[in-house]
Amino acid sequence: HPTPNAEQEDRDFNVNLKWQKQEEDRDINLMIWHDTNRRYYDNPGEWKHTGPSTHKTYTMGLSFDYTKYDLSFNDEGTESGHILTWGAEIKHNRLDSSEVGYRQDLNGAAFIQDSWQPAELENLKVTAGVRYDYNQIFGGQLNPRVGFTYRLQDELSFHASMGRAYRAPTYDDLYWPEDGYVGGNPALLPETAWAHEAGLRFINDKGDTQAELNVFQNNVSQLINWAPDSEGVWRPSNIGSAQINGVEVLLKKEFNQHFRGNLNYTYLDAKDLDTNNQLKPNHKWGLGLSYTDQIGDDQDNFTAGLNGYIVAGRPDGLENYYIVDANITRDFTLGNENDQKIKLSFSIKNLFDQRPELVSGYPIQGRTFMLGISTNF
Fold first, then answer.
1. In this structure, which of 202, 209, 257, 272 has its CB flanked by the most CB atoms within 10 Å?
2. Which of 59, 123, 111 is nearest to 86 (CA)?
3. In CATH, which superfamily holds the domain spanning 7-280?
4. Which residues have a Cβ under 8 Å from the Cβ of 245 and sit 6 or more positions away?
5. CA 31 – CA 367 distance, rounded (Å)
6. Which residues of the chain are modeled with pLDDT < 70?
7. DSSP, res 207
8. How many other C-beta atoms lie within 10 A of the C-beta of residue 128?
9. pTM (two decimals)
10. Is 314 helix (H, G, I), strand (E, B) or coil?
């Protein structure tokens, strides 16, 4: 395990450029991003110490989506409204590690979705779509999804959906540096799942109170799960067959024009169907409170918030824990003819510097400070 002299330093740098065009009957979005993560780790007190480890990952991506509103098709003399969305993305991942060397791959996806409002059934909305994911290492996967929403009353609606989900292993899953206590698994396979969900949603007439109750079941093949192996080393492996059943409750409330709050709870029963072992924590509570206002002659937006969650009923004897995050954002109007605005954001992750073990012997990242800036051209 890490000795008292062990040191870890993480650095993240993220840049996003987004172009958006909004018209009465269509939206177009184009985004380019670049993420860099550098993890430095040194444990000079460990047995057979060979020096520090440096693990750097880079991701560059491009995404595009196009939404067309109010598409109509004449069905036996009636007009039915459609909202059609399609798009694609491409990502290049690169790894440079003192432990596992150099890796790279190129991945992509394309999707199309139609949201249909039948003219003769004004309380019903049907959504259907399909997404194709391609991974250079693992190949391609076609993932369909269909769902509907039915308004039972003015303030109450019922929704249900089902679809297939796909997740390829990340570079951390595959190539996490091996130190005798934790390590990646290059032999991992992608996980796939059939997800089913149904629920009720309440929104009052004023729109300032919202409540949801959802139930869901995910049947997962090759679930990627971090747990101790036969030698006690924490590493990910594929669970051949797993089932995740759950219930989610969500409450949102606008107390006045400045203060908003939310409360949520999720119960999970995640089991390995072959061994009946618990795979994920049973309980998660979340709480959030935010304050918004407009400041100065230019009425620039200001937001401050606190968000926290509690995780309990963890597997493998791990202790329960709580985390609280804080964030502030402020718009500033530049003195040009277009009244261009910039947005500054500052956040503190893990405000109280809690250090619960994410896996045995390895605490979660401590208090972290993040500063961001964005603007629209």
1. 272
2. 111
3. TonB-dependent receptor, beta-barrel domain (2.40.170.20)
4. 216, 217, 268, 269, 270
5. 30
6. 1-4, 47-49, 73-80, 335-339, 359-362, 377
7. S
8. 16
9. 0.81
10. coil
